[in-house]
Design brief:
Order of helices and strands: HHHHHEEHEEHEEEEEHHHHHEEEEE
Radius of gyration: 23 Å
Strand content: 5-15%
CATH class of the largest domain: Alpha Beta
Strand order of the largest sheet: 1-7-5-3-2-13-14
Number of helices: 12
Largest sheet: 7 strands, mixed
Shape: elongated
Length: 356
């Protein structure tokens, strides 16, 4: 972990204070004319917000990107306001413009630190996870459910439970057509599923959920599962099992990745909180239709080379994903079948097998 990045942020903040508390730039007597001084303000706050995000990210964050970005944007904006909007300076229009430049730089720093999401596989530090990555009974069967896309009923769940009452459970995302973790946007089927999860946990079974491209802002529900995470890097290290949803396997699909990042951003979360719940849910469904169109070619052609490369990142583990709606095996990687009709898989004794 690069803890020194926090020091960079502190140095930038320490320099910004004296700089903003008087007109001009150091050294004393040196000043930039408009609009270059505003550009310099924006550049300084770009560095500050970027350093804060990178420092937080490399701490092994339990906090989703949208919450990190919103927190940093507000804190840096308030820091800038404490200097720019001082009562002695409010009489000057330039002070307000300088503060807006600070905010623009603040936002730009967060955008720039997100660019690896568009084309890189080095994304573990950009995701988040909470809970325990160790099952109480590692030898117990673990049922794997990939992309059930439930909409009317929890198809296959009761039958699998009846066949394997002592199993633990791992859901690899896309549990419903759309699942938004905003208060008031929950559905009866989501409530039924969470009650099922609670019953499994009360029975002493481990239940994990790794978010896919149809889950949005579910971190408030993390305590309802033994493990919840998003992005790449899901693992049960003691068992040699690694996973992700699968939508980030293909680093060449930058259009999808851009959509993925934007749809889970702070502005979208704020919009969903402000809008009437029915309107917000209609917006989520509309976004999901756009995703289906954007990613159609990607789904039709299984990215074998990219999938094999992603699996090779875990040479000593079995790597599994959902997302592709097809059962494929490449090297040590396994794409699980589409669970929409109740086709689940089982992990036990270091092997994956498809349940009948």
């Amino acid at each position: 972990m690069r803890r020194w990045i926090w020091s960079v942020a502190l140095v930038i903040a320490a320099l910004a204070g004296p700089w903003l508390s008087r007109p001009g730039l150091p050294p004393p007597g040196f000043a930039l004319a408009h609009p270059w001084d505003w550009a310099a303000h924006a550049a300084g706050f770009t560095l500050l917000s970027a350093a804060l995000e990178l420092g937080w990210r490399n701490q092994g964050s339990r906090t989703p990107v949208y919450r990190r970005h919103l927190t940093i944007f507000l804190l840096v904006g308030l820091f800038a306001a404490s200097f720019e909007l001082h009562p002695a300076r409010l009489q000057h229009l330039g002070a307000a413009i300088a503060w807006l430049a600070d905010l623009a730089g603040d936002a730009l720093g967060l955008v720039l630190t997100s660019l690896p999401w568009l084309c890189s596989r080095r994304l573990q530090s950009m995701g988040w996870r909470r809970g325990t990555a160790r099952r109480p009974e590692p030898g117990a069967p673990l049922i794997l459910v990939a992309d059930p896309h439930w909409s009317g009923a929890l198809t296959g769940l009761d039958q699998a439970l009846a066949d394997h009452p002592g199993a633990d459970w791992l859901f690899l995302g896309d549990v419903f057509d759309v699942w938004v973790g905003i208060p008031g946007m929950d559905t009866p089927l989501e409530t039924e599923f969470l009650a099922w999860v609670e019953a499994r946990r009360r029975a002493g079974r481990w239940v994990g959920l790794w978010l896919g491209n149809r889950e949005f802002f579910l971190d408030p529900l993390a305590d309802r599962f033994d493990l919840m995470g998003e992005g790449t890097g899901g693992r049960l290290p003691a068992e040699g099992l690694a996973w992700e949803h699968g939508d980030l396997v293909n680093s060449a699909d930058w259009r999808y990745r851009l959509w993925n990042l934007a749809a889970r951003s702070s502005p979208v979360w704020l919009l969903a909180r402000i809008l009437p719940k029915a309107t917000a849910r209609a917006l989520a469904e509309r976004l999901q239709k756009l995703l289906h169109t954007t990613n159609r070619a990607y789904k039709l052609a299984f990215p074998r080379q990219a999938f094999r490369a992603a699996a090779a990142e875990y040479p000593s583990a079995t790597f599994i994903t959902g997302h592709f709606h097809t059962h494929e095996v490449e090297g040590n990687g396994i794409a699980l079948p589409w669970a929409h009709n109740g086709e689940f898989a089982l992990w036990q004794d270091g092997k994956v097998r498809i349940l009948p």
